[in-house]
């Protein structure tokens, strides 16, 4: 039996989904998969993928529920947002990122099924995932126990590690981009989604309009000053994700709407400045303390200097595995002091000076 809301599967004797209370159905019918109405319903892309509804949309792209007419399977169809479909540089970058993602096959990465052009605009077809984003789970549960969270993290780290070995940096690691496939009460299978779209912003002109590359609270110090990212950039975002998962809070967050005296963007600038230089409060100090060994792993991910973080997702995964065993953690290895980010480009140094001023500091005095 199948839940038409969350798409979890149950034995034949079940009648209602224990996860969300929805009445179960006997077979997968694409018409029962929840999606939003769209004017594109019925449109066939590339003479194969029939649009059934809208799943989600952002500044860069729209994602549709579609039916593969060669067999009837549901797929996720990603198209550039209409405003970018006539932008040659953005279309070329979309195809480049899609093709790069398609070269990496890993059970913890969303599978790319097809890439192509339709009426001159690129499209990307992904496997349709049944389940929910980690962000949805955290809205309900607020925080997870290490027993529930570490298996998810190990899988996400494995998927990101595979992408890094292929030369792909995600740039926007956050709970919304970790998808959980599985039934409530069982071990989830985690898949990392939405590769490449943070990088697309750099080629879209959106950054010139004040749109940051990545999600503000999950951005690594190097992203705040537009320095080149690498695998350690994703490790920082992974650390913020772990901090949120186990403490129920973010290390630095925007107090949206709570400071009317601040000028527009001032609170966001303070968050970016904090990402650059301020050490986050240890999660063990929260209302629900995080055990010290797990905290050590989180805090190493959140080091300002990339060289002070884990060198790779594999090294991070090894420490996550050690948490269940009485072994020494690499998280406790010595680091370069002071742990403040040092910009690597002239533009990065200029941006750093501005962000330091938000905290009343002089760039270079602490480095």
UniProtKB/TrEMBL annotation:
Keywords: ATP-binding, Kinase, Nucleotide-binding, Transferase. It is an enzyme of class 2 (transferase). Coiled coil: none annotated. One of its GO terms (molecular function) is ATP binding. ATP binds at residue 78. It comes from the Bacteria. SUPFAM superfamilies: Protein kinase-like (PK-like). Transmembrane segments: none annotated. Residues 49-328 form the Protein kinase domain. Its EC number is 2.7.11.1. This is Protein kinase.
